[in-house]
């Protein structure tokens, strides 16, 4: 009560008294704070009483104590004193002084704050938390000072040194009343470093300095003091001119400061029980404090700490990046939390739930089970895992290059290999399905190029030499996942195929090269022979016998010059022809290829022409869009515009299409005997592969007339064998055409479900085969126009 009356009286006196010059006013408020500690000290301990006498003498020199002061614990909280008001007044004076002066000019009040080490003293009082709540007030003062003062303060030794010390106090104890102020202070420091990245060197404290700062019990050597004070040795920062001014005059004061520091080291500072602080060394205390606060029970504090870490990892300073990854526990924090959240997931989660759970942003990981109408067991755990993975992904995406590589490798080694791989390699079908669905979701979600590279190496390995049948299991996980594409469980097959389909859409050259291209480099699937006269009889005017010219076919109206699709600005991104391989007039060739695919399925097995809106033209728009997207991705990989000359290829080497294409071709060969959903996924992956603008991929998958070497197969040859089998089996089915049309209409929702139709799997397979051939024809046509447009 008395303190409140005193505060009111003081404000009244200040309001009525004439205004003082800013510096005198500033000094008045500071002395009012220091005198509070002298006037309220009622200490019985002789040692502490003697120290207080030293402080009084120290104030006579207008300087302050630098080490911790232990005072009695039964004092009133700081909010019952005038200290917060005096600190606010000091801050307002500093801001007013800066506004009244030219930009960059340091005023007398700021000079006083720097010269008399006021921030050092405030750090001391905050560390002792004397009176209770003082740490909170000090954190607020530091935060506002750095945030409101425009001139750079951190380069000053009497600013960055106490700031560094105060950083060490942050995050030491979790769930304290000062957590909010701690994170605000740390974030303003991070923001200042983001503005001027070179300043981070002041916060890379070496180990020698850390040991010296602890001090000996009774004496501090001269060499150690020099190591502490000379930050040019620690950080490469030379002393500022203002730091050197008055050095001779302060020599006596600094000696007193050293004596006081040595004496204060003997005192025991009472502290709260500390959290398990992740601090293997003191090299990068700013990161360590933020890491500790990411564990805060308060989600808002944890998110702010994550934001601060993201600012720090993006700093371009190589020394900071090296220290961050080698001398802090950032890598361990990211991967250990990923591992723990992954392990917290239920053993079995519906793959559809994993796929359809809403998009997760790491800063918005808020979920209420009661408010969610589509809740399912494990949704909270799944969102937490995906949210943290998104944070890791974004952190690596924003990080400095060397830091990003180190972080991504840590995720690869500690999480992908250490946690995910055992789950993917298990034999339980339920476990395989859940783990593959999670891998699929992670593949879809990753956006960082560096993390994507590590994920690709994890899934596929780093091999780039051609595959051999004897070595397809060289990378066990790759082999297992590809085998799962042909698993006895259709659910596992579909999920694994979908994972590969999304993987093929990622902007990483190694994916297609590892799965397909490395086996096609030498074109040893071809047999080189000159064109025979008999081959010319097959085609008349560029058309297969009985085929219709594309420009006269009403299904091709979308590709006429007057149609909107003729405006093909996007084609400029397709790979250009090289001087060694000039483009041919391929009109005849493309007509020939398109009609070959369209005529591949016999008329008696076709049903699309009986249903409106299912013609070939429906695939053209999608093919245009998808091929444009693939060209944009692949342009930077500098693929050739034409196949490698056969004269330069090693055609004698044995050809193996590779494990991935082998499984896809095997699946395609059984299209008439597989479930509808499996067939859709197999053909979807093959169409994705066909869209890649690489000449060897185009030749192997889309050229029906390539001269295959003995014992080799291509996509076209596989389909031809399926069609041959189909022609035999059609003869055994009564009313084949009406049943086929009825199945198509049911699949399109044009007919209600009725009695089960005989041979339903075969009929659905025929429909998928017909649609797939139309899709391949559209892709071939679009790719031809892309290569023929200048």
Report on this model:
With 790 residues, the chain is mainly alpha-helical. It contains 35 helices and 2 strands. The protein has helices at residues 2-16, 22-39, 46-60, 83-100, 108-115, 118-128, 134-148, 157-169, 179-195, 207-214, 222-229, 231-235, 241-244, 251-264, 285-293, 299-313, 318-326, 330-343, 351-356, 379-398, 401-424, 429-445, 449-460, 476-484, 490-504, 509-515, 533-536, 587-598, 620-634, 659-669, 676-691, 695-702, 715-730, 736-747, 760-788, and strands at residues 539-540, 543-544. The chain has a two-stranded antiparallel sheet with strand order 1-2. The longest helix is centred in the last third of the chain and has 29 residues, at 760-788. The chain is elongated and about 110 Å long. The N and C termini lie far apart (87 Å).
What is the residue-averaged pLDDT? 80
Specify the biggest β-sheet.
Answer: 2 strands, antiparallel
Low-confidence parts, pLDDT < 50 over ≥5 residues? 42-74, 208-282, 535-587
Can you count the helices?
35
Strands of the largest sheet, in order across it? 1-2
Q: What gyration radius follows from the Cα positions, in whole Å?
A: 37 Å
Summary keywords:
FHIP_KELAA_motif, mainly alpha, FHIP_C, two-stranded antiparallel sheet, FHIP, FHF complex subunit HOOK interacting protein 2A, 790 residues, 57% helix
